[in-house]
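name: query_chain
kind: protein
chains: 1
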Amino acid sequence: MSESKPKLTHKDAVVAISEVTSKADLAAITLHRCEVSQHRLDDDSENQKAGYLKVFEKTIGDGHYGCLVEFLDVNPFTGTSGDEDKPSEVPNGVKIRAGFETQFFIEDEEFSPEQIQAFLRASSVFQTWPYWREFLASMYGRLGRLESPILHPLPISEAIVLAGYEPVETNQSLAE
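structure:
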């Protein structure tokens, strides 16, 4: 699986998603991988990418498609350097990463690869978001030292943007 860039405009993606949705069934959502680690914030260039999202699509065959959505959260905290009496000079952080795999069955093969890509990317982000919210809240609860960030339910319009499709200009109508 490799990450690919969206090929449709935001407007075309919205149309494609609505067309494919009526012919698609969600077959499964599975936790593909997860990682929770404590680290020094200056040791990792990924700290700048906290909250990032990566989406990888794949064709399984015979109308079956899959998508892997990876989420990352980095939360700094004031910690210690191992010696409880000596505060750390470098801020510590917790990095939580999870990848969820979705599998869809799409009834008809009448859709272009770009339409299927738009559907997979946006629908996978939208469908896995509640699992990411639960996973993140659960991990922060188990850590006991940090407050869990509040992640609100994700509207499909935001899922489309997170999937890589540029937002429509505010003065531009989808009906144009």
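note: The chain is about 30% helix and 30% strand.
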